[in-house]
Design a protein that fits this description.
The chain is of the alpha/beta class. Helices cover about 40% and strands about 20% of the residues. The termini are far apart.
């Protein structure tokens, strides 16, 4: 064997190992987050990805990180399959999807072999899209954070969201909540959020949002039917409640969608968040399960700019950085960094889909 052949075999083995690891991590995450069908779907499709199809070659030769901390390639595939099922393109596969009884991995694999062959070009097209779910249930944590900011400041809020996806969580004051026994938000809203809540209810008056805007590298336009369908496709097929919640949030936003800009998060923050704030207005930078996808240089610039702006903040014109992101081995945490003092604290812990919350509030 030549040196070049040995090198190629080594690279191929590394890629294959990375692919298996990415699928294994996503299968475990789906199982933990209550999606056994999606876990089984991933288990069925991974061994079928090979050089005989364009989509298989694309995945095997993927340039970049494959798992959920990178390009989420496994979820690109499940999103593609769900999207095609919802469009009526794959009747044989649709017959195995919820609410049907859970099929075996072997039965799924037999049908998927035909899908990979017959729908190769369509699958290849889906692989270019980054999975976006705009998970609305995370709004429970974010809204509780806004209550806490309002309690501390008494100010109205100017809301800035980075990594906004379709911008649905910018409409979070139009959802209804029950958090620790306290009812908040818009009573009668079609989006009703009642996470499993541990700890006291959020204390403080409800936030008054004066303005809201967001940015994303690839924002989804909910006025575009094709983009709405794609957003729904990335919700895991056996989580009907999440899908209903998404559709209800879209219905709320459709008459007057939030203002979104296509922009790099650091560029946008530097442009939109100036040194001087308005009196009696708290500027709040918000994001949820998005920061991990930003390049290190983007993260550095955001941090540096908010530090600089925060140094000029006052009690009358404060700045807050509210984030629900992965934080160590315990999983996602809701953190608040608040200026003029600049201290960061953990307000809550929760799972990535916002189903369970451990609230600490200002004692965190």
């Amino acid at each position: 064997m030549s040196q070049s052949q040995a090198t190629k075999r080594g690279v191929d083995a590394t890629r294959s190992s990375g692919l298996r690891q990415a699928f294994a991590m996503q299968i475990e995450a789906c199982a933990k987050l209550g999606s056994p069908f999606t876990a089984r779907l991933l288990e069925a499709i991974e061994p079928l990805l090979d050089e005989t199809t364009a989509s298989g070659r694309k995945v095997l030769g993927w340039q970049g990180r494959l798992d959920a901390l990178g390009d989420s390639v496994p979820l690109r595939l499940t999103g593609a399959l769900h999207g095609m099922v919802r469009e009526g393109r794959l009747p044989a596969l649709a017959a195995l999807y919820p609410p049907a009884a859970a099929p075996s991995v072997e039965k799924l694999r037999a049908v998927l072999a035909y899908v990979l062959r017959d729908e190769d070009e369509t699958l290849l097209g889906w692989l270019r899209f980054t999975p976006q779910t705009n998970e609305v249930a995370r709004a429970s944590l974010l809204y509780a954070g806004l209550v806490e900011i309002t309690r501390r400041t008494g100010c109205a809020i100017a809301l800035y969201e980075i990594g906004s996806s379709a911008g649905l969580n910018l409409m979070l004051d139009r959802f209804a909540y029950e958090l620790g026994g306290r009812k908040l938000g818009a009573a009668g809203s079609p989006v009703q959020l009642r996470p499993g809540w541990q700890g006291p209810a959020p204390a403080g008056p409800e936030p008054r949002i004066l303005s809201r805007r967001g940015c994303d590298l690839a924002p989804l336009d909910i006025l575009d039917e094709a983009q709405r369908r794609r957003l729904s496709a990335y919700v895991w097929a056996d989580q009907a409640e999440r899908l209903q919640r998404l559709e209800a949030a879209i219905a709320i936003a459709l008459p007057a969608p939030p203002r979104l800009e296509r922009a790099d998060a650091a560029d946008w923050i530097e442009r939109r968040i100036g040194l001087s704030g308005e009196p009696d207005v708290a500027r709040v930078v918000m994001h949820s399960i998005a920061y991990q996808y930003f390049p290190p240089e983007t993260q550095r610039r955001i941090h540096h700019h908010l530090e600089t702006v925060g140094a000029a903040a006052t009690a009358q014109a404060p700045l807050a950085w509210l984030a629900f992101e992965q934080r160590g081995e315990e999983g996602p945490a809701l953190t608040l960094r608040f200026w003029p003092d600049g201290e960061e604290e953990i307000l809550a812990r929760g799972d990535a889909h916002g189903r369970q919350v451990r609230w600490h509030g200002s004692d965190g």
